[in-house]
């Protein structure tokens, strides 16, 4: 690693001297791991190397590779290695505990439907996914709330899409309305084709948010291909 050049890159990106030192120290740990465990250099590392390093870090009880992945995102951004940077970001995202996304946060959701679901104890995407994982479960939820099966299914699909990093209230609605309405559907797209299709849809329909950037589309597709299926449609 060319430390001085990397440090200059971090400084240009607004990182403080102390943050840059922390990033460099964490990247050095990965570099040392590669030299001892894989006999490889850091610039030759690929996705498999990142995943193996994460497993190696997290074999120790109570440890997380979150900080290392944070640092490695910066390093592979500096090296313009989009694929490894993207995977490091996805793995880090998986390790961040977040407040459950509320159903009311989706664009275009009927507030009355949100209120009815809250009356049966469902306010977040995870709670809805737990309660509506199968068509029969959706039917039951429809009877309990008086919400149509079609609207329950729409909310379940939006919640399913919201499992993807960066896909929440507005992005989930954009993908859903454009016809990419499940994680499984997302997984079959080529990222560039997806971005182009959604951009065309947004322009044609007047959807008043910009289409996903290329890296966003790639992140969504790559993550969709790794997420387990949890809903039967």
Number of strands: 0
Radius of gyration: 21 Å
* C-alpha termini separation: 48 Å
- Give the averaged pLDDT, no decimals: 90
Tally of contiguous helical segments:
13
Question: What's the number of domains?
Answer: 2
- Uncertain runs with pLDDT below 50, 5 residues or more? none
Element pattern in H and E:
HHHHHHHHHHHHH
Strand percentage lies at under 5%
Instruction: Label the structural class.
Output: mainly alpha
- Residue share in helices? 55-70%
Envelope shape: elongated
Q: Major beta sheet, specifics?
A: none
Task: Describe this structure as you would to a colleague.
The protein is an all-alpha fold. The protein has 2 domains: 3-94; 103-224, no CATH class. Helices cover 64% and strands 0% of the residues. The chain is built from 13 helices and no strands. It has helices at residues 3-12, 17-38, 47-58, 66-78, 82-94, 111-119, 125-131, 135-145, 149-161, 169-177, 183-187, 191-205, 214-224. The longest helix is centred in the N-terminal third of the chain and has 22 residues, at 17-38. The chain is elongated and about 60 Å long.
């Amino acid at each position: 690693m060319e430390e001085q050049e990397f440090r200059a890159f971090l400084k240009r990106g607004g990182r403080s001297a102390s943050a840059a030192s922390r990033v460099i120290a964490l990247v050095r740990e990965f570099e040392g791991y590669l030299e001892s465990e894989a006999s490889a250099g850091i610039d030759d590392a690929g996705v498999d190397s990142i995943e193996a390093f994460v497993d190696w870090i997290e074999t120790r009880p109570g440890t997380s590779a979150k900080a290392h992945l944070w640092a490695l995102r910066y390093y592979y951004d500096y090296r313009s290695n989009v694929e490894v940077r993207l995977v490091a970001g996805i793995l880090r995202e998986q390790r961040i505990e977040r407040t459950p996304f509320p159903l009311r946060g989706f664009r275009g959701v009927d507030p009355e439907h949100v209120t009815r679901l809250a009356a049966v104890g469902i306010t977040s995407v995870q709670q809805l996914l737990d309660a509506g994982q199968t068509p029969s479960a959706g039917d039951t939820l429809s009877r309990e709330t008086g919400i149509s099966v079609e609207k329950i299914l729409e909310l379940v699909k939006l919640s399913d899409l919201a499992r993807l990093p960066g896909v929440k209230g507005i992005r989930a609605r954009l993908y859903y309305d454009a016809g990419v309405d499940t994680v499984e559907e997302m997984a079959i797209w080529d990222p560039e084709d997806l971005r182009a299709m959604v951009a065309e849809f947004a322009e044609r329909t007047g959807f008043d948010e910009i289409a996903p950037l290329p890296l966003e589309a790639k992140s969504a597709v790559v993550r969709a291909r790794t997420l387990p299926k949890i809903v039967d449609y």
